[in-house]
Amino acid sequence: MTMTAQMKAKINQFFSVCFDYPVYFTHDLFNVSNHLLKDVLSRLQEARRHRAMVYVDSGVAHAWPQIIPGIRSYFERYADDIALAASPVIIPGGEVVKDDQDQVWRMMGDISRLRLDRQSYVIAIGGGALLDAVGFAAALVHRGLRLVRVPTTTLGQNDAGIGVKNGINAWGQKNALGSFAPPFAVLNDYDFLTTLSFEHWIGGAAEAFKVAIIKDADFFNYLKEHRTDLNHRSQSAMEETVYRCAMLHLDHIRGSGDPFEFGSARPLDFGHWAAHKLEIMSGYQIGHGHAVSIGMSIDSHTAMSQGLLTQEELKQIIGSLRICGLPAWSPLLERRRTDGTLEILEGIEQFREHLGGRLTITLPRGIGNCVEVHHMDAESVENAIRFLKKYSADIQI
Ligand SMILES: NC(=O)c1ccc[n+]([C@@H]2O[C@H](COP(=O)([O-])OP(=O)(O)OC[C@H]3O[C@@H](n4cnc5c(N)ncnc54)[C@H](O)[C@@H]3O)[C@@H](O)[C@H]2O)c1
Ligand SMILES: [Zn+2]
Questions:
Q1: Least confident stretch, 22-31, 86-95, 186-195, 257-266
Q2: Of the candidates 22, 147, 243, 350, which lies 20 to 30 Å from 386 by C-alpha distance?
Q3: Residue 269 carries which DSSP code?
């Protein structure tokens, strides 16, 4: 075809890619009699011995001293099908791993030097922070190796570990670098939850409240009924909480029509504009779940003042969080810049920038439903903070 200078040629490119990955719930994952991990690594029935690199969260290695020898024995038992590319590597757990870009660089170097290919596995065992950092490294080498996540915290099992994102912090911003990269599989072993500190045990419950409040009134009632059990570390109540929360998250990723967040809305980020800012303001002394609990309390108060929640519903939300052992307030909320404005308010614009496009914040509309708003005014945040301070002081008495 010949074209004049003015003619424009256009070929429309369109294709879709199908992703699928199983999320298992199990106990005693590395017991040699549990062949789940071996089966998962062999699930595509390829005629090869699968090589894997294993990264273990230092908090997990500390609480489970037998885990490294256990992993070695496991791979030896199933040596016909699976092989360790190197001895499992212990990586610092917690937000430090996401704050240290050298860690990711080192992992990528290891993966490359050990000649893992795109059909080899990177197995990440740990909390949400380690999963995010290892997932990021695995997504970059050769443009993506197969990632198997073994989340070991409540928040990891019901949220961070089961979705399609990874990332690390940079330039003072949370998750400033990262990618969308669905895992090959997720293996949730409930036994890991037994060794969590109370803070990390209950932190995941905040995310459960989050999805319940905006999506599932029945689940909210379950959480309300079991708030004392959760506080008292009932393993069965937490297993049910983790499972139901994971199901809602997975439903959302599958059914929302926007798994890779191309739009400006992120409905599951109820309470998160303030949460992300608070985490940074606290130098990550406030964990993600606790920050989300405070962020949800602020946004629930705003929802109440806009007539979206009744006072009774607001009380049920912050009262249940409190009985679980989750906060509604932090003194950092009162920190002001030199011009007198609340520092936390910077979280609104940072949240918008992270998503792109128009500011979109999800607020509850009654319990079990939600609505998107495109404006959050400083006065309603000021009011919420005043209310939450007083509420939190009153209940200390
Ligand atoms: N990718 C996503 O979609 C997504 C979603 C939500 C949260 N996140 C991220 O997840 C991170 C928070 O994850 P988290 O709440 O799991 O905390 P975390 O990863 O910071 O872990 C908390 C602490 O518990 C320790 N630990 C982990 N498992 C343990 C166990 N079984 N026993 C004893 N100690 C253990 C860790 O070493 C760490 O010190 C944040 O960085 C957040 O941004 C990511
Ligand atoms: Zn979250």
A1: 257-266
A2: 350
A3: G
Residue of 100, 186, 192, 288 to mutate, ligand 1, most atoms within 8 A of C-beta = 288
Helices 378-396 and 288-305, packing angle to 10 deg: 110
* Cα–ligand 1 centroid distance for 80 (angstroms): 33
The predicted structure's pLDDT at residue 263: 77
Helix 346-355 to helix 272-281 angle, to the nearest 10 degrees? Answer: 110
Q: What's the rounded mean pLDDT across residues 179-200?
A: 98
What pLDDT, in 10s, does the model give residues 191-236? 999 999 999 999 999 999 999 999 999 999 999 999 999 999 999 9
What residues are in contact with ligand 1 under a 6 Å CB criterion?
57-60, 63, 93-95, 98, 126-130, 132, 152-153, 155-156, 159-160, 163, 165-166, 192, 195-196, 200, 203, 287-289
Find all residues with CB under 8 Å of 68, minimum gap 6, and list them: 56, 61, 87, 88, 90
Q: Both tokens of residue 228?
A: 């004392």
Q: Name residue, tokens 């379950």.
A: 222
Give 105 Cα–ligand 2 centroid separation in angstroms: 25
| Centre of ligand 1 from the C-alpha of residue 153, in Å | 6
Pairing of strands 361-364, 370-373: antiparallel
Q: How far apart are CA 71 and CA 374, in angstroms?
A: 49
Which of 117, 367, 360 is closest to 258 using CA atoms? 360
Q: Does the pLDDT at position 268 exceed 90?
A: no
* Distance of alpha carbon 382 from alpha carbon 384, whole angstroms: 5
Predicted local distance difference test score (pLDDT) of residue 3: 59
Determine whether 72 is exposed, middle or buried from the number of CB atoms within 10 Å of its CB (0-12, 13-18, 19+): middle
The DSSP secondary structure of 206-234, one letter per residue, reads: HHHHHHHHHH-HHHHHHHHHTHHHHHTT-
| Alpha carbons 78 and 39: distance in angstroms, whole number | 10
Q: What percent of the chain has pLDDT over 70?
A: 98
Give the Å distance between the CA of 396 and the centre of ligand 1.
29
Determine what percent of the chain is predicted with pLDDT higher than 90: 88
Residue 264 pLDDT > 90: no
Average pLDDT, the chain: 95
Secondary-structure breakdown of the chain: helix, strand, coil percentages, each rounded to the nearest 5: 50, 15, 35
